[in-house]
Write a structure and sequence with these properties.
With about 80 residues, the chain is an alpha+beta fold. It has helices at about 10-15, 15-20, 30-40; strands spanning about 5, 45-50, 55-70, 70-80. Helix content is about 30%, strand content about 40%. The relative contact order is 0.22. It is built from three helices and four strands; from the N terminus they run E-H-H-H-E-E-E. It has one domain (about 5-80): Aminopeptidase, CATH 3.40.630.30. The mean pLDDT is about 95.
């Protein structure tokens, strides 16, 4: 199993079916730009696991890394989702 950190619009599109299944309120025509804006301005990161046929992402996680005074470095998981197949 390989976990891939999304860095480009193409990476986000690859995870698109899972993202849109989890966030049905997103517009399919603009979700890539929305995720890219979060990645650029809000310290948001996205990683995914490709399906066994490598045609789409079977799962994704949206997360942020933070450095807190009390706890030190942490990972805050915003979203965690797997497709049912």
């Amino acid at each position: 199993m390989k976990i891939i950190k999304a860095k480009t619009a193409e990476d986000i599109e690859f995870a698109g079916e899972a993202i849109l299944a989890f966030w049905p309120n997103l517009n399919p025509e603009t979700y890539v730009e929305q995720v890219l804006l979060l990645m650029k301005g809000k310290n948001f990161e996205l990683a995914y696991i490709p399906s066994s046929d490598h045609e789409e992402a079977a799962a994704f996680v949206g997360y942020r890394t933070m450095n807190m005074l009390r706890t030190g470095k942490i990972i805050y998981v915003d979203d965690l989702f797997t497709l049912p197949e």
